[in-house]
Amino acid sequence: MSMFTTMMLFEKYGPRMSVEQIGAALGLASGTLHARLAQGKLDLPTYVDEKLRCADTRLVAEYLDRLRDQARQAIATA
């Protein structure tokens, strides 16, 4: 996991991120993100805290790092 990604997200959003904040970080509308989570199309664990769906910021950073690594591999094999 990249400490840079984690620190950047922590500085901007704090220790947990709402679906709207996760969507902003991923470049997705919150409705799209909600749908992908409900369909199991997003490998990002979330939880509900008083009706607010959230994710641990460290897990969002790991997810972004995995996406970056997948992109690098795709370029290397192309």
Task: Give the topology.
Elements: H1 3-13, E1 16-18, H2 19-26, H3 30-38, E2 47-49, E3 52-56, H4 57-77
Antiparallel strand pairs: 1-3, 2-3
Helix pairs in contact: 1-4, 2-3
Give the strand tally: 3
Q: Over the alpha carbons, how many angstroms does the gyration radius reach? A: 13 Å
The SSE string, one letter per element, is: HEHHEEH
Main sheet strand line-up:
1-3-2
Strand content: 5-15%
The averaged pLDDT comes out at 92
- CATH fold name, please? Multidrug-efflux Transporter Regulator, Chain: A, Domain 2
Low-confidence stretches: none
Main sheet, how many strands, which sense, barrel? 3 strands, antiparallel
DSSP helix fraction: 55-70%
Query: What is the SS-derived class?
Result: alpha+beta
Describe the structure.
- This protein has 78 residues and is of the alpha+beta class.
- The chain has one domain (3-77): Orthogonal Bundle (Multidrug-efflux Transporter Regulator, Chain: A, Domain 2).
- Helix content is 63%, strand content 14%.
- It is built from 4 helices and 3 strands; from the N terminus they run αβααββα.
- It has helices spanning 3-13, 19-26, 30-38, 57-77; strands at 16-18, 47-49, 52-56.
- It has a 3-stranded antiparallel sheet with strand order 1-3-2.
- Strand 2 and strand 3 form a beta hairpin.
- The two termini are 25 Å apart.
- The model has no long low-confidence stretch (mean pLDDT 92).
